[in-house]
Specification:
Helices cover 68% and strands 0% of the residues. It has 442 residues and is mainly α. Helix 6 (110-135) runs antiparallel to helix 7.
């Protein structure tokens, strides 16, 4: 007679399986947070962002320092006779568009400006989350989940710097590439007008399987208008000041090229190395060997440009230039530029998250993208632990400077691994597209 296999008795269940089930019961999120419907996604965004701002109020109030600087600079412009050529010299002039509305709406009050600035960054974050949700089939996909975790892991710094704006513009440009190539060019131009680095994305977008003329047309029209307005408002000297500012900066303690000296300093925190606040409003390393490692950074930057040209050309020569190749090349470019620069502030990690989240939408379920997202989440967490939590001890060389240095350099090693994996992925995909079985998407 037929028999039915009985479920094993509780005592017969594998102990490891029982432990995993228990852990899932204890650590499972409520359905309101873990569901993939619209209501759960909105609720998860609200809770995660509220917790992020709570961190600022409770244990990370120092992150508002840059916003206070923005407010002081704008007050000097309007009330103390400072000129537009002397205000925000480190940034392109269109950055006024990110700060001036909040300043005027808050009636030049520093507290009101701080609140409005954070709310504007929250709005940018919310719009990008919505874009990821919408392009993922209106559900809480892996890219949406990644972004929901990524911003809180970086911490309140994300809302008290304006780097979130070019980061989401870069991600939006990737999402717009296929269906709205002109919009892709417009978003890239706006991002470059705010922070310069998105400009390196344009040659990559021109490789993509889409209307290149529309991408280029959107970029040139928008970028040309912004450049002309900047020239008329501030002149040639002010137009070039961000590049000069960057060239004159020293070796920031958080940068990858500063790593060897920071490790040596860890064993002699009261030795000849110091990290004063420089004229460029950053903690820059001073002491023996700094000039040599600045030279190393310059060499690395030149080598990185050569590497990216090789990757770009390899992608260009591929019979099939897919969105996947373009997306990985964008991530690789942002990562390589980050690790070879003599300057690396915590908010720069945001630059990697936007393009990667957009790539994840285009490559849903790809295990290489999943691995990159997990790695970047770890990098974001270590970044927040380093700044602002351990930063005072790291700067002053006080205990636990050793722990802070190890956290910082672990983050930097993971950044190098992230960049290597992205570059390797571009190389492999370009090779694979040469396969006779590849299907063209041109």
């Amino acid at each position: 007679m037929p028999t039915t296999e009985l479920a094993p008795a509780p005592s017969d269940v594998d102990p490891s399986l029982r432990a995993r089930r228990t852990a899932r019961r204890w650590f499972a999120l409520p359905a309101e947070l873990s569901g993939d419907d619209t209501k759960s996604t909105v609720f998860a965004w609200l809770i995660s962002r509220a917790l992020t701002l709570t961190l600022m109020v409770s244990i990370e109030p120092s992150v508002v320092g840059d916003v206070s600087y923005y407010s002081r600079s704008l007050r000097a412009l309007f009330f103390n006779g400072a000129g537009i050529r002397e205000t925000f010299q480190e940034y392109p002039l269109p950055v006024f568009g990110v700060m001036l509305p909040q300043f005027l709406l808050g009636l030049a009050n520093p507290v009101a400006f701080t609140v409005l600035f954070a709310l504007s960054m929250l709005a940018a974050d919310g719009v990008f989350t919505w874009l990821l949700w919408r392009t993922s089939g209106r559900r809480r996909s892996e890219p949406v989940t990644f972004w929901l975790w990524f911003v809180p892991l970086i911490g309140p710094t994300a809302y008290f710097r304006f780097d979130l704006v070019p980061a989401v513009l870069a991600g939006g440009a990737v999402l717009a590439l296929m269906r709205r190539p002109a919009l892709c060019g417009v978003l890239t131009a706006i991002g470059a007008a705010l922070k310069l680095w998105p400009a390196i994305m344009l040659p990559i977008f021109l490789l993509g399987p889409t209307n290149r003329r529309r991408v280029l047309g959107g970029f040139l029209a928008t970028g040309g208008a912004l450049a002309l307005a900047s020239l008329l408002a501030g002149g040639v000297e002010r137009l070039m000041s961000p590049l000069q500012w960057q060239a004159n900066r020293g070796l920031q303690i958080e940068s990858v090229p500063a790593g060897p000296l920071m490790l040596v300093r860890m064993f002699d925190p009261k030795g000849p190395w110091d990290a004063p606040l420089s004229l460029y409003k950053a903690r820059e390393l001073t002491g023996p060997g700094v000039s040599a490692f600045l030279t190393v950074s310059t060499i690395l930057m030149i080598a990185s440009v050569a590497l990216l040209v090789v990757l770009w050309n390899r992608a260009r020569l591929a019979p099939t230039v897919t969105v996947e190749i373009v997306g990985w090349l964008l991530v690789a470019t942002a990562a390589v530029a980050t690790i070879t620069n003599k300057v690396l502030s915590p908010q720069y990690i945001l630059w990697l998250g936007g393009p990667l989240a957009a790539l994840a939408v285009r490559q849903m379920g790809d295990h290489h993208v999943r691995r990159a997202m997990r790695l970047l989440l770890g990098i974001a967490l270590l970044t927040q632990v380093n700044y602002p939590l351990l930063y005072p001890w790291l700067v002053n060389g006080n205990f636990p400077v050793q722990f802070g240095t190890l956290v910082l350099e672990t983050r930097n090693v993971l950044l190098v691994i992230f960049a290597w994996q992205a570059c390797k992925r571009v190389w492999v995909l370009a090779q694979r597209s040469r396969s006779p079985d590849a299907v063209s998407t041109r």
